[in-house]
Specification:
- It is a single chain.
- With 387 residues, the chain is of the alpha/beta class.
- Helix content is 36%, strand content 20%.
- It has two domains: 2-132, NAD(P)-binding Rossmann-like Domain (Rossmann fold); 137-309, Dihydrodipicolinate Reductase, domain 2.
- It has 13 helices and 14 strands.
- The strands form two sheets. It has a nine-stranded mixed beta sheet with strand order 13-12-11-10-6-9-8-7-14. A five-stranded parallel beta sheet has the order 2-1-3-4-5, sandwiched between helices.
- Strand 4 (99-102), helix 5 and strand 5 form a beta-alpha-beta unit.
- Helix 4 (86-95) runs parallel beside helix 5 (110-123) and helix 9 (192-208) crosses helix 12.
Length: 387
Amino acid sequence: MGMVGGGQGAFIGAVHRIAAALDQQVELVAGSFSRDFENTLSTGEQLYLDPSRCYRTYEEMAAREVRLPEDRRIDFVSVVTPNNSHFSISKTFLEMGFHVVCDKPMTFNLQEAVDLARVVERTGLVFALTHNYTGHPLVRHARELFRSGQLGTVRKVIVEYLQDWLMAPLETAGQKQASWRVDPAQSGLGGALGDIGTHAFNLAEYITGDPVAAVCADTSTFLPNRKLDEDANVLLRFEKGGKGVLTCSQIATGEENGLKIRVYASEGAILWAQENPNEMHLYRYGQPRQILTRGHREYLSAPAAAATRIPVGHPEGYLEAFANIYAGAVRAIRAHLAGQPLKTEEYEFPTVYDGVRGLQFITQAVESAARGGAWMSLERISQTLTA
């Protein structure tokens, strides 16, 4: 693995490195960790990398790595930079023949997302998007319950992602994570919508298997001098007739990482919360409520069992779920290297098409809010890519 971004002072790069290494299938061997070459060199030293494979720019990294013998060069690159550079970095490595794992949201804007999907299609390479919450065993079990039809037709979805870490103007104090996230030149159209709203949106579509057909949004910015949304409330209409509410906020006092989803269907319902990921509530009309816990292979689905590493009673969480995304990507990359590439529908991770959906959501929600809460359509991905 190579990495672009994730140098000293970054948060998510270290998470990616831990997740990639958890199953002992991936070795980090190269990187361009920062636009500051001294940062890149010191990060490489901390990670015990060969200094000759710590590069000044991602362009240099791609060009020099591709010239190495196949048994030495990187197999894939992990992109963990701010949103505005995801497209150019991913495109460069794909066109050089390298597979890509990219942080979310996938690109800076919707046009870049569509263009990147076309690059992935043209190259035929693996592209994984780290919507890491889809890696939790009980989330995968919930998906199987709905996709198998056991819980019937989806009627109502309530999904929320609430934080309070941007309650204060951290960007004015030089806090790196805040600075780029509140800057539209680096983050894109969405603030909370892009950073955490896309996770909530992705989780709703992932579990239900029912695409959102239209959104109606109201956004708010409370702190002075901020240009992007800090808080959003979005009504959802699903293609099969269900309705939903998505709320996200980074100024919700007292909240830490409150991602929670409830899905109510004609034959039952589920409730799952990221801050207690090892339990899922299962409801069926007229029956006692059940609490399912991870690790029980005797009653959980095969995808849930496959995403579980340790016995019952031992908690698994954020890093393990993240590692499941990498494990799926590694499986797909190994198959490709063996000359037997998987079909996209066989991937065990969010794809470039999920990335397009995320940018559609951000774009249409922002436009809806600008129009005073007008309903905006989210056309199907296939229609977008063939337009």
